[in-house]
Amino acid sequence: MSAHLPCPACHRDCQHVGSRLERDCDRMAPALTINEIRITPGSEEDRGAGLLAYASCRYGDLLLAGLAVRKTMNGRTVVTFPAKRSGEGKQHFLITPTTVAVRRTIEDAVLAAFWEASA
Questions:
Q1: What is the number of other CB atoms lying within 10 angstroms of the CB of residue 46?
Q2: Label partner for 47 (CA 20 to 30 A): which of 54, 66, 71, 94?
C-alpha cells in the first residue's frame, strides 16, 4: 500500500510527488528574492547577433553573473544562463535554476530591469 502525501510544491494530493515534476510545479514560490540587478548593453555587433545585454543579479547571498538577455530567432526576448562548451561541442551550464518558479523569478526580474534600462 502506498501513501499519498501532499505535494510540497502545490500542497495537493498529486501523482508527481517524488518525481521531476514536483520540482517543476509552477505553484512553488521561490524563498529568495532577486536584487542588485545590473544590465550592461551589448555592442552593436552583439545586438546584431541577438545578444541584447549582459546581466548579473543577487539571488539571496549568491551573485549570478554571466546572464544574457537575447532575442530569439522567433522574436522573443529571453534570459540565458552561462554555459561552457566542451571540446566535443556539448554545452555545460554553470548556473541552472532547479525549479520553473526560480527560473521565472530570475527571468522576470532581469527582463524588467532590461526593459527599464532600455527605455
A1: 15
A2: 94
pLDDT at position 1: 39
DSSP β-ladder status, 91-93 and 77-80: unpaired
Partners of 62 in the beta sheet? 59
CA gap 36, 58 in Å, rounded: 6
All structural domains of the chain, each given as residue ranges with its CATH number in brackets, are: 1-30 (no CATH), 31-118 (3.30.1120.40)
Q: Which residue in the block uniquely carries the three cell numbers 549570478?
A: 64
- The Cα–Cα gap between 68 and 84 comes to 14
Q: Tens of pLDDT along 12-53?
A: 555 544 554 444 555 555 567 899 999 999 999 999 999 999
Q: 26: how many CB neighbours lie within 10 A of its CB?
A: 11
Angstrom distance (rounded) from CA 21 to CA 99: 9
Confidence of residue 119 (pLDDT cuts 50, 70, 90): confident
Single pTM value for the model: 0.73
